Amino acid sequence: MAENTDNPAPDKKNDKNMKPRFNTNWIFFGIFAVIVLIQVFYPRNPAQDTTTKQLKEMLVNRDIERILIVNKEQAEIYLTKEAVESGRYPEVTNTGKGLGLQVPKPNFVMTIGDVGTFTAFVKEEQEKAGINETERIIPDNKNRHNYFTEVILQWLLFPVLLIVIWLFFMRRMTGGGAGGAGGIFSVGKSRAQVFDKESNVKINFNDVAGLEEAKTEVMEIVDFLKNPKKYTQLGGKIPKGALLIGPPGTGKTLLAKAVAGEANVPFFSISGSDFVEMFVGVGASRVRDLFKQAKEKAPCIVFIDEIDAVGRARGRNVNFGSNDERENTLNQLLTEMDGFGTNMGVIILAATNRADILDRALLRAGRFDRQIHVELPDVTEREAIFKVHLRPIKLAKDFDVSFLAKQTPGFSGADIANVCNESALIAARKNKTVVEKQDFLDAIDRIVGGLERKNKIISFEEKKTIAYHEAGHATVSWLLEHASPLLKVTIIPRGRALGAAWYLPEERQITTREQLLDEMAYALGGRASEELVFGKVSTGALSDLEKITKQAYAMVSFFGMSEKVGNISFYDSSGQADFGFTKPYSEKTAEVIDNEVKQIIEESYERAKSVLKEHMAGLTELAEQLLEKEVIFSEDLERIFGKRLADIIKEKREAGIPEVNESPKKEISSPKNEKEGKKSEKKKKKKNKPESDEKNEDDPDKIKSSKKSK
């Protein structure tokens, strides 16, 4: 292809413009220079210290050639050649001359206190020895400066060391000159990795399963680069950018890797956090350098992963509007993507899971012409993803992949890959030769619930409470129409949970109010079971209460499912409310919302209690089986309670039988029957109480019933 044959030319041009890296041979040259300096300025055999007694002997024997007083502090004694060769001074040898550049060195040195006293001492000793005045040694005085130690070491060595250390750390901080010249001058260079046809990228679109719509959009961009005439002859232009949006683990980065493997053009890969640096102006400089390299290799693709790190909306940061470096980097990115200058042949591909916080100017057409949503896979897509990840795994014969896809609702592609890997590890732990169905189920339990802790010490009373708690969840969910199908119930601790009920949620796009209320009712089934059986409640319902509280507030303030609040939603899809300090409603409305939430939760709790009261025998039997077996499955619940209410209603609808409220289980789920049951219970209580008590209890009940009728 024409665009591929032009790629090597810009590479050569870049090679010429690149500055040479630091050559390590200079280090060895510096060491050699230091050795030479030591040889020049310092002798190999330093002079020996002498004493006053030895100095007298030298003067008497006439072995001294001359005495030199240096800087009025030290006397250098030079012996005659005959004295050195006589052997009277074995500690003195012929001093090495090194490279022959240094001056002659003394044989002995002696520290003196005062020059006049020392001179008088030398004169006096020679007179005593009877030496003629013409042959006497007269000490000479000299001021000597050691420029190497006084100038170089004291004034130049320390600054040079500081500069070397600073250069070293700057190279380390800038990644050793990645993306351009070495040293501190590479701090503003782009850190993008370049993949071209010579790079060994093994991932292609065949390795990406379950993203058919997203693959179609991205493959069209790749096809445009391969066959541009197919689109340009109709007047079409290549999209300038595509933004991949979706939850974590759905395959956005994997899709970009497939583009790098399929496209026969240079592919630049960089993370959004690579533009963020502690130095002012570095982020904008890296953006300019990235697009400069991309334009030189056009046509090409630039992939920015986690673009929200640099593309967050301006003026909505936690720094209260300060002009920070990130905003300057974003401004430069906006200019490079679609500014005054042309940017032909450079396609921007980006990925994020926080599209709600991105700047509007970044999302407009002309910068990102396409926004590709990569959602969680459905059952068909999960089956295709399983087939991709099961290729290297040795499976048992007649293995049903569709079963795994049905058992993993809400799993992302990354979760499915983790399930396949965990199942292989579990099978290897059990010394199996193939991976079986049970290994995959254990892997799903491990990922969803956590590590199984069979050795956790739990008293019998706590274990009994946990059994009735989980049995309450299972019983209520089995007898409500819109509850999720139950898979199994266990009281074996996993992770932080002491027990769990495993459900298979229905994959639906919208949820009705009745479905939400049923979910809240069976979530409160555990707390209701504890109260009915033991007469007291425990802290085991913490996660259930947290879940239903958030769900109830969402029903009232987001979904408009409250009569008093009305069809009003305070949900902010733009994410601007994340940095606000005030609520979008008044204190009076907040009080109404709190009351509505409390009423919804109380009604769901009463429904759960009424269901358990009607089926107390089944609840007890189920809890006893849990205490005995620790794990029970849906078949055990069907044997105790019969078929699920949802299955019965479904069969009637398929058979065309009209729905009649004849089943006692159906009556329990009806709000009208609940009210009638409450009234009958209150009448029984009134008969057994005095009139004064009846009067005190009647008034609140009448008020409550009148509110409900309204």
Question: How would you describe this structure to a colleague?
Answer:
The chain is of the alpha/beta class and 710 residues long. It contains 29 helices and 14 strands. It is elongated. Mean pLDDT is 79; it is low at 1-19, 96-101, 176-184, 661-680 and 682-710.
Features:
710 residues; alpha/beta; 6-stranded mixed beta sheet; 5-stranded mixed beta sheet; 9% strand; elongated; disordered N terminus; disordered C terminus
Number of helices: 29
Largest beta sheet: strand ordering: 6-8-9-10-7-11
Radius of gyration: 44 Å
**Strand fraction band?**
5-15%
Which term fits the overall shape?
A: elongated
Point out poorly predicted stretches: 1-19, 96-101, 176-184, 661-680, 682-710
Calculate the mean pLDDT score and round it: 79
Distance between the terminal alpha carbons, to the nearest Å? 75 Å
Query: Which structural category fits the helices and strands?
Result: alpha/beta
Largest sheet: 6 strands, mixed
Overall strand count: 14
Give the % helix: 40-55%
